Amino acid sequence: MIEIIISSSVLIFLLCVLRLVLKRKISCRLQYALWLLVVLRLIIPNIPIYDVQPAIDNPYNVMNAFYMIRNQINSTKHKPDDTKVEGITASKYNGVLETPAKDDSNLNIKAKEEINRVYIIRLIWFLGIFLIAVWIIFVNTRFIKQLLNNRTLVKIENYRLPVYVVEHLSSPCLYGILGKQAVYITPDVLNDKQQLKHVLVHEFCHYKQLDYLWAVVRCILVSIYWFNPFIWIAAILSKRDCELACDELVIKNLGQEERINYGNTLIALIIKEAKTPNYLSLGTTMVESKKSIKERIKMIAMRPKMLLITFIGTLAIIVVIVAVTFITTRPENNQVVINIEGLSEDAIKKDVISVKWTRDDMILAPDFSELYYASDDYIIFKVNLGLFIYDINANKIIRSLDLESIQCQYAEGDNYCAINVSEDGDSVYLRPISKEMMYVYVIQDNILYYQPFHLEVMADIEMFNDFTDTTHLDVKSDGAICGRIVELKDNETSKIKYGYLSIKPQYRLKDLRYITGKEEIFLFTEENQ
Question: CB 3.0-4.6 Å disulfide test: which of 18, 145, 355, 367 passes with 386?
């Protein structure tokens, strides 16, 4: 979402600059067509070109600059340090960091505050969409009722659209849903043959340009992206360019000799300021206020012609704009090239430092040991030394991650590291709660990524949560149970069994076991060193 907002805003800004620089130098229809780029940018994702062979690098994409700046800020702001953290006992016992008992009350409060903040933002966004949509529906429904209740059919020979005259209509317009469009005119226009001719040609040109469809698209996008002022600017300017393009097409159909007369018709139909912004109307009103029609009269009077060199230069600029705002660069070696749930495009690869230990009699702190995932194939758990993945079928540790190397070793305090595992057990998400950055560890590929933390993204990921309340279980162990208990289904008996970590009273590394049903697995043996 952030990519679409930033890139579309930059795109709109560049188009506004281009519109100003090339004013009266390019075709009005080309100027109008440029807004199609904004529509495409808002409804489609980035175009990846790194899968195209041969690969093409695009270092000028606007999001690359954004990510580079953000990463520099985050790397400076969240640079790891070796200072003491409040809540951690600094003493070492046999090389093992001791920790006091956890108090998760403050952590839960912080997590709830973050979740509430995200929900409030989402609620405001959806509420804005609802209110803008209701407003658009209301004003258009009211206008439709006015047209239907006051219209009288007028027979116009050799004209493809039905024409109605409507009393008290402020301006002629094309209005109607797909397949039922009609032209609505005022009694004054009906009584003036020249104005009637100009109006009918003008509204039919709107019909040929499919402007009634673009009006719907404009209203939908304004409703969705109501919070972005650039979208409102685009809506206003695209509506103006819509009329300019239509005027150009009208003069092309009528002939240059009708140019002055057509301009006089526009002046004669000038209305006061509309009560409702016309860019939120599903109809195409022919004229508006004096201020809005001034530019149209100038364009008609000047008869601008687009030179070939101007056309070629404009196309070159458009290519550059598309490259800057649409096309995603090919990732560098330390950037993400695979699709992993929760992994952002600006994630950076980090070196995986495995845990090394030479003694199996090292003392463990039971309250620092925790089980995060368990299945019939492998378990994911943490002890003082780091994070481990134990393959039950192979009876050995197959992966390990030194948590101290990434400042994720703390069990409580301001730098407490929250650890979650995806429901399928493929990825581990680690985040010190005081930081705005996090790590994603992909187990199968043994790859570690470093990226910004986005709560709304993480909230959408299904995490492993098959834990059960230990107070209601008759779990017997000749040692201390470490952390949570997982509820598993026995494949042979289809009965429920439980898996948990347990350590004997000596609290040595070699005494740590994983117990599931009747099976007892010692996790740290000489073979695992």
Answer: 355
Report helix, strand or coil for 498. strand
**pLDDT value of residue 222:** 93
- How far is 74 from 49, CA to CA, in rounded Å? 27
Alpha helical stretches, state H, 49-192: 62-77, 105-150, 187-190
Residue type, 515: I
Q: What tens digit of pLDDT does each residue of 515-525 get?
A: 887 888 998 87
Helix (H) or strand (E) holding 298: helix 290-302
Structure tokens at 199: 């109006």
Q: Which of 217-231, 407-421, 499-513 has the highest mean pLDDT?
A: 217-231
Indicate if the pLDDT at residue 131 is higher than 90: yes
- Among 296, 228, 204, 221, CA closest to 259: 296
What's the rounded Cα separation, in Å, for the pair 430 and 451? 11
Q: Are 184 and 172 in contact (CB under 8 A)?
A: yes
CB of 368 closer than 8 Å to CB of 99? yes
Residues ≥6 apart with Cβ < 8 Å to 177: none
Domain ranges (residues) in the chain = 2-73+107-325, 349-528
Strand partners, 489: 496
CA dist list (Å): 357 to 185, 310, 360, 512, 521: 87, 70, 8, 14, 19
Query: Which DSSP helix (H) or strand (E) runs through 184?
Result: strand 182-185
The residue whose two tokens read 């979650």 is 420
Structure tokens at 289: 């206020």
Contact 77, 389 (CB under 8 A): no
Q: What are 381's strand-pairing partners?
A: 371, 388
- The string of DSSP codes covering 8-70 is HHHHHHHHHHHHHHTTTTS-HHHHHHTHHHHHHHHHS--EE-TTSSS----TT-HHHHHHHHH
Asked if 428 and 420 touch (Cβ cutoff 8 Å), the reply is yes
Whether the pLDDT of residue 40 is over 70: the answer is yes
In what side-by-side order are the strands of the sheet with 496-503? 467-468, 480-489, 496-503, 512-516, 519-522
pLDDT digits (tens, 9 = 90+) for 465-475: 988 876 656 55
Torsion of CA 325, 214, 295, 205, to 10 degrees: 130
